[in-house]
Design a protein that fits this description.
It is built from 13 helices and 21 strands. With 519 residues, the chain is an alpha+beta fold. The N terminus and C terminus are likely disordered.
Length: 519
Amino acid sequence: MIWQHPGPADERLLTRRLELVPVVADDAEELIEVFGDERLYVFLGSRPTTTEELRVQFARLAADRLADTEGTAQRNWTVRRPDIHPDHHASATVATRAGLWPTGQYRDHEGVGEQLWRQRLEAPPHSAHPPVKEQHMPTADGDPVRERLADYAAALHTQGAIRSQAVQQGFASVRRDRCITSFYASDGTVDVPQDTLPPAEVLDRIYSDQALITHFDERGAPASSSSQPALVAQMLEALELAPGMRVLEVGAGTGYNAALLATITAAPMVTMDTNQRVVEEARAALHRLGLDGRVTVVHGDGYDGWPAAAPYDRIIVTCGCVGLSPRWLAQLAPGGLALVPVAHGGAHPIVAAWHDGPTARGRMALWADFMEAAGPLAQQQATVLHTIPADAEFTSYPRVGPVLDWAGYVALWCFLAARDHRTTRAAALVEGIDPMKGMCVLHDPERGIAWIQMDGSVHVAGAPALPEEVARLLREWETLGRPPIQGWRCTLAETGLAPTPILTPRDWSLVGEAIEPRS
């Protein structure tokens, strides 16, 4: 659904294509004032706060040429007249370059002139990204990999993980099988030959929406992988990439993500990892793809970033961190964005972070979980609930909360973690509690454990007051309108000691709502 801007019906243009009319604002507060309705950000999929972010947003929207599949009235994005503020004139120019043109129609809202902009529909489709070069998509003679790649990208688009043409082109162009020489499956190690076409059953696994573990550490825990393609796609979309952007990736993995990034941006980038073997394998994979001249693979501590190639327009981190390295934000270009999986409620949802003057700020972008980082970015104390007392007796309370799908459940989980520090993830299985219905818990070491599940049930071991505490939190979430995870913002405050301080989230709040810091 596309949310409508409040206003008289005659101010809305009814077309078959999305009316791409941008809002120019200097900061989040002015955006809120112009939009009026926070739900618009759910449609945007991001929350621009600077002119640079708006520019990238306009280019992405213009490239997408989103269609109104439901036939409903389309959004009018308004631009205040450029003579109101110097930045507005520059942004109007940016909008024009993105394929947005004035209609010559003007409205006056409370005495402030505004110009309506709309997509020039008669113009050829505009793409902000150059076509992917053929040599980045090597195939064996008679190999149907090209068709398989197209189907693979189309499936990710159908499920909503891919939203833009540029990201879909990337997935349809970069061969994931060239980045993996072997992976682990339930039936053993699966080898992926590089000198011949892999067997069809191996390609079926590689081009499915599954994470593939490629390395274990000395403890037998997964240490490196090729992440789930849907999550990779969602993170690439959240980065709002544009041609020419310089990117730093912390966590090289198989090199597949770097290959996608370099293909989409068509610009030099750096990917780094602490594991020398992973670095060598990623470097070899990028050579096989013909991208080794564009992607620099380095061995080093991700905490330090890679200042030699800074500044970066985007930084993406692919391991779970307790917070952000201050050095990442120091290496961002003005208007830059860092995307980092940050510990929250026993998982590692993706936080988008940026500089707001002297202050570092973040917002929730996606729900996810990642293998933990090493070194100072690792969680120093275990927060996930791994063991349950042997004598624990559970009492079940059906339908304490609403029945939720997965998206609603993780939105609730995010809220609980923002409101109550006891929120975590249960890794231990308990008889009578179905892990497929959710593993979010409130864990109070002194008082007990409460499981909150997708079917609305709550299972409690411990203090009799815990069910009512959970019910109170659930009522608060309902009162707030079940806010999505993208509605949450925070400040990032420095914690820890020199020489490796960490920026960790503080004072999670919903945009437009002043709340108390979490307990």
